[in-house]
Amino acid sequence: MDRKKIRFGIQAAATLIQNANFKGFFTGRIYEGASKSVCVPGLNCYSCPGAIGSCPIGSLQSFLSGIKFKFPYYVLGLLIFFGAVLGRAVCGFLCPFGFLQDLIYKIPFYKKNKFAIDKFLRYLKYAVLLILVIILPMTFNLTPFFCKYVCPEGTLAGVMLAAADEKVRTVLGPLFNWKLILLLIFIVTGLIVRRPFCKYVCPLGAIYGFFNKVALYRMTCDKSKCINCGACAKACQMNVDPSKTPNSMECIRCGECLDKCPAGALHMGFCKSKVKAESKAVKGE
Amino acid sequence: MKRYIPAIVLIILSAGLIAAGIIMHQPESILHKAIRICMECIGLG
């Protein structure tokens, strides 16, 4: 089986497992079991009728925006753990909203991933993390700003709840409309640009990006094999050049570059890198 | 092996933080919040 199919299978399985309360989609009632005390690695709103775990960003904000400030040891510990083991492979393999965007991008349409303001827009997610997830919830208690005004995953949960429950439909208002417009913007731009939410807005991706350089799951480029053809950079839809920065903060470990490398210079995984062993062999060590 | 040291240190640190959170009953706080529909999250708040 090729890499793309394996990743698709893992993404689908992760989405189903994190949303295993299937009857919730029909009854409009959310899951109330003990597993919700654990944060899932990806962005998956705990108000989604299928969710059996908690969203790490929602949980982080609930601690930061509480009347009495509580340092979020538990959520931070889980985020560091996921980051140290997987880095942004969480985005590429385990995030349900990332999977949804990948499915949207598969729809045949005009595609454009490289444009002038892309580099500047990348910084937006760090501003979202700092301002909407940390500073504003800490300043104005009881308001999870990111979840309330931006998170499209929460809106999706709202749409599903509204579809299943008439009472929810009767209370939809301007805030829901605003969030629905944002969700539609992400869906429509997702047809053209690969993963616009992950690239420019997601605070969880911003956090995991910091771990890409040190995470156990990483990419390596064997310089002795690399022929500098640029095929990997051309194939990367996250606009990374894997031959120069294989562990860039933007890399979601989708592995598209590995398939395109004609020299087999790129490697990705947990195991001790083949690159090192092969380089040693070349040097005669 | 040397290249994995930062990740191992971070995993140990995360274990400490998770343990501290569990001692402070933070998973229960998350559960308490997560078993109710978050009106703000779904756009009704």
Look at the helices and sheets of chain B and give the structural class.
mainly alpha
Fraction in helix of chain A: 40-55%
The strand count of chain A comes to 2
Order of helices and strands of chain B: HH
Mean pLDDT of chain A: 92
State the distance separating the first and last CA atoms of chain A. 35 Å
- Across the major sheet of chain A, the strand order is 1-2
Number of helices of chain B: 2
- Beta strands of chain B, count: 0
The biggest sheet of chain B, with number of strands, parallel, antiparallel or mixed sense and barrel status, is: none
Q: Tell me which oligomeric state these chains represent.
A: heterodimer
**Class inferred from helices and paired strands of chain A:** mainly alpha
Shape of chain A: globular
In DSSP terms (H or I, runs of 4 or more residues), the helix count of chain A works out at: 17
- Count of domain modules of chain B: 1
Distance between the ends of chain B? 50 Å
Unreliable stretches of chain A: 277-285
What is the helix fraction of residues of chain B, given as a range? 55-70%
Short characterization:
With 285 residues, chain A is mainly alpha-helical.
Q: If you had to describe this structure to a student in words, what would you say it looks like?
A:
The complex is a heterodimer of chains A (285) and B (45). Chain A has 17 helices and two strands. Chain A is mostly helical. Chain A has two domains: 3-209, no CATH class; 219-283, Alpha-Beta Plaits. A two-stranded antiparallel sheet of chain A has the order 1-2. Chain A is globular. With 45 residues, chain B is mainly α. Chain B has one domain. The chains are: A mainly alpha (285), B mainly alpha (45). Chain A binds chain B through residues 30-32, 34, 36-39, 45-47, 51, 54, 58-59, 62-63, 70, 72-81, 83-85, 143-144, 147-148, 151, 154-155, 157-158, 161, 168, 171-173, 175-176, 178-180, 211, 214-216, and chain B through 4, 6-7, 10-11, 13-22, 24, 26-31, 33-38, 40-45.
